[in-house]
Write a structure and sequence with these properties.
This protein is α/β, with parallel strands linked by helices. It folds into 2 domains: 3-152, Rossmann fold (3-Layer(aba) Sandwich); 155-281, Hypothetical Protein Tm841, Chain: A,domain 3 (2-Layer Sandwich). The chain is built from 11 helices and 13 strands. Helix 3 packs across helix 4. The chain is globular, with a radius of gyration of 19 Å.
Length: 283
C-alpha cells in the first residue's frame, strides 16, 4: 500500500508544528499589488502585507495557484511513491480547487484525490489534522478521502472582524453595510455555510461583546465538538484577544485541545487586521 501525502493550499493557516507532525506540503496562493505578485507565506508575510497596504493605500488581490503549480508538486510526490490527498479552500471562494483538478487530470487515476473543504483558514485545518492522523495510522488514501469528504459539512467556523473596510474593498459587503456598520459600531460575526461566507450575527458595541457571543455559541454546543479539538485563528494586532478567547474556552472546556494559529496573507487581505475566528468539527 502506498504512503499518503497530504497537500493543502496556503489559506489553511496551519502551524509549523502541525505541518511537521503530519509532513504536510503547501501550495501557496498569490497576493498581488498591481504588477507585483507574491507567494503567500513564501515571499510575503502578513506584517509585510499590512505595511504595503499602508504605503500604497490599496488592498492587494488574491490569486489561486496555477495548474502548473499543482502539477509540479504532484509530480514530486508521485515520483517518491506517494498517493496524494489535496484539501483546498472552498471552490466558491477561489479557483484553487478547479486548478488542482486540472493538474490531477494529467496523472494516472486513483493516485490523487482532490477535496473541496467548503471552507477557509482553520476550517480547512480541522480537516487536515484528521487526514494527517489517518495517514500516519496507515490508512489508504481512498479511505481517508472518503472520511474527510463526509466531515466537510460538519465543520463549524465563525470569526469576528474588526472593521468592514476590508470586506467592502474586497467586494464582500456593499457601501451601505460598510457605512452603517461603522456608524453604529456593529461587529459582524461571519460564518461559512455551503462554501460561502455569510453574516451569522451582528453585535452592536465593542468587540469584546462579539467575542463573548462567539465563545458562548461554542460552549453551548460543547457536547457536539468532535475530536476534542478547537482552533483559534487571528490576524495581526490582536494576540491579546486570542489569549482572552483561549482562556475562556479552556475554563469551560477542560480536556479539549485548543490550537492557536495565525492568519496568512490571503485571509488577511480579505478580513483585515485584528480578525479572530474559532473553528471545530461537529459530531
Amino acid at each position: 500500500m502506498a504512503k499518503v501525502k497530504i497537500i493543502v493550499d496556503s489559506t489553511c493557516d496551519l502551524t509549523e508544528d502541525i505541518m511537521e507532525k503530519y509532513d504536510i506540503a503547501i501550495v501557496p496562493l498569490y497576493v498581488e499589488f498591481d504588477e507585483e505578485s507574491y507567494r503567500d507565506g513564501v515571499d510575503i508575510v502578513p506584517e509585510q502585507l499590512f505595511q504595503k497596504v499602508k504605503e500604497k493605500g490599496i488592498l492587494p488581490k488574491s490569486a489561486a495557484p496555477s495548474p502548473f503549480d499543482f502539477s509540479m508538486c504532484f509530480q514530486k510526490y508521485l515520483d517518491q511513491g506517494y498517493d496524494i490527498i489535496v484539501i483546498t479552500i472552498s471552490t466558491k471562494m477561489s479557483s484553487t480547487y478547479q486548478n488542482a483538478l486540472v493538474a490531477a487530470s494529467e496523472f494516472p487515476q486513483n493516485r490523487i484525490w482532490i477535496i473541496d473543504s467548503g471552507n477557509i483558514t482553520t476550517g480547512i485545518s480541522s480537516l487536515v489534522t484528521v487526514a494527517g492522523e489517518a495517514a500516519i495510522g496507515g490508512r489508504p488514501a481512498e479511505e481517508i478521502a472518503k472520511t474527510i469528504k463526509a466531515l466537510v459539512p460538519k465543520v463549524r467556523v465563525n470569526f469576528v472582524i474588526d472593521t468592514l473596510e476590508y470586506l467592502y474593498k474586497g467586494g464582500r459587503c456593499n457601501a451601505v453595510e460598510n457605512f452603517f456598520g461603522s456608524l453604529l459600531r456593529i461587529k459582524p460575526i461571519i460564518g461559512v455555510q455551503n462554501g460561502s461566507l455569510y453574516v451569522a450575527d451582528k453585535v452592536r458595541g465593542d468587540k469584546k461583546r462579539a467575542l463573548d457571543k462567539m465563545i458562548a455559541k461554542v460552549i453551548k454546543n460543547k457536547e457536539n465538538i468532535a475530536f476534542d479539538r478547537i482552533f483559534i485563528n487571528n490576524s495581526c494586532g490582536n494576540d491579546d484577544e486570542a489569549e482572552y478567547v483561549k482562556t475562556k474556552l479552556q475554563q469551560e472546556l477542560p480536556g479539549v485541545e485548543i490550537v492557536m494559529t495565525k492568519a496568512g496573507c490571503v485571509i488577511s487581505t480579505h478580513c483585515g487586521e485584528k480578525t479572530l475566528g474559532i473553528s471545530y468539527i461537529q459530531k
